Amino acid sequence: MAPSAEPRRARVVVVGSGPAGLTAALYLARAELGPVVVGGVPSGGQLMLTTDVENYPGFPEGIQGPELIERFRKQAERFGTQFIDANVTRVDLSRRPFHLELGAAGALLADALVIATGADARWLNLPSEQTLRGHGVSACATCDGFFFKGVPVACVGGGDSAMEEATFLTKFASHVTVIHRKSELRASRIMQDRARANPKISFLFDSEVVEVLGERSVTGLKVRRLPNGPVSELAVKGLFVAIGHDPATGVFRGALELDSKGYIATHSITRTSVEGVFAAGDVYDHRYRQAVSAAGLGCMAALDAERFLSEHPAA
């Protein structure tokens, strides 16, 4: 889409191209609302970084994350969804039609807007971690814990999420070592007590991972004792990073109500603080963070947007 003096106008724009955004687009396209998806660069969300997906319904043999996203996209395209591979750089949601700047891709006007920009897991920013992401390195125990039956794994973090991930992993792994930079956990007392009482969980405090070992899969970790202690090796087959997520809401700050952690605040499930703007998926759901739940929320946001457009003629 080339920049022009007159921005293109769409009845509904979907920002984001993960399971939530693409499901919303599918429903909106089948309702003949001509959705335009601003997919982001790179597009596809967290599933593009995932290898085997075995918990999405309808794929008994499993499916690769990028292939699943491609199928989502083709299905939405089949019913008339149009895609723009660009990032939203600025928004004006103060009045309808909503105004979205897309940098070099120009601008869009939208009578309704679905935001499905997701949230990014925080990583340790190690080159070896990036190399083995999806090959033993994960940020989602619920998604990938099943692949580590009967083998030792490690979990990095000290908050409630890390304790929840570690406890969940004990259903599959032979042992879980929690690695935390501090001398005390940040998790709530109930979550700490639950993890400490589990005989399959042990703790390495005042420690940090400095390298993930392995070529095609994880074989171990190099762990440094803080602040300047020795480096030792820990034999594990998997590393789960549970140090939080960052919602992709920066461009909407000041235009929408956000919660204390930066996620979009919603009312009646998908409705945001601005009438005609809806949210779906991990951009506001920081509890479940699953592809299937994101897709379900995308469906709900689309139905809400369709109802809004039927009740509010174009401005």
Structure description:
There is one protein chain. The protein is α/β, with parallel strands linked by helices. It folds into two domains: 8-120 and 245-311, FAD/NAD(P)-binding domain (3-Layer(bba) Sandwich); 123-241, FAD/NAD(P)-binding domain (3-Layer(bba) Sandwich). Helix content is 23%, strand content 25%. It has seven helices and 19 strands. It has helices at residues 19-30, 65-78, 127-131, 141-144, 160-169, 189-196, 291-311; strands spanning 8-15, 36-38, 52-53, 63-64, 82-84, 90-92, 98-101, 107-115, 119-121, 137-138, 152-156, 175-179, 201-204, 207-213, 220-225, 231-234, 238-241, 245-247, 277-279. The strands form five sheets. Strands 1, 2, 5, 6, 7, 8 and 19 form a seven-stranded mixed sheet that branches. Strands 10-17-11-12-13 form a five-stranded parallel sheet, covered by helices on one side. Strands 14-15-16 form a three-stranded antiparallel sheet. The radius of gyration is 21 Å and the shape is elongated.
Break the fold down into its secondary structure elements and pairings.
Blueprint: E1 8-15, H1 19-30, E2 36-38, E3 52-53, E4 63-64, H2 65-78, E5 82-84, E6 90-92, E7 98-101, E8 107-115, E9 119-121, H3 127-131, E10 137-138, H4 141-144, E11 152-156, H5 160-169, E12 175-179, H6 189-196, E13 201-204, E14 207-213, E15 220-225, E16 231-234, E17 238-241, E18 245-247, E19 277-279, H7 291-311
Parallel strand pairs: 1-2, 1-8, 2-5, 8-19, 10-17, 11-12, 11-17, 12-13
Antiparallel strand pairs: 3-4, 6-7, 7-8, 9-18, 14-15, 15-16
